Prior knowledge:
- With 132 residues, the protein is mainly alpha-helical.
- It has a domain at 2-77 and 116-131.
- The chain contains five helices and no strands.
- It has helices spanning 2-37, 44-71, 81-96, 102-111, 117-131.
- Helix 1 (2-37) packs antiparallel against helix 2 (44-71) and helix 3 packs antiparallel against helix 4.
- It is elongated.
- The protein starts with a helix and ends with a helix.
- The relative contact order is 0.15.
Amino acid sequence: MTELVQIRDEKDAIMKMELFTEIQAIEKEYQVIEKFLSGAEYATVDIIQTLREFKNNLNRISAHILTLYTLKGQKTKITWDSLLTNIDNALETIQTSSKPNPRTTIRLSLKISDPKIEQIMSYLSVLKESLQ
């Protein structure tokens, strides 16, 4: 029985470390998005890549959170589907528009999301602190 507990503890520690690393990555992507929305110049292809990476990391973080809660026998609900959908819509609009305006498109997509990207990042920051 002790071996099973040790294996579970090791898996839990690995998952927490992976989650911590994913949160660090998404924080960097969020900083780029914030700078871009504040007026910093980035190539459209670079901002598209950053948005994709942000979305992919948020999906991975969601999976880690759900797994950790499940391992502890608890239920949770991830509520940021609106943000993920709006990022997809922004990416599609930027890529298919004849005159793309990435800054306006991204700003609008993030503004209509519920919860807001800032709320999600605040939650992830608190979660990251709890993993240390």
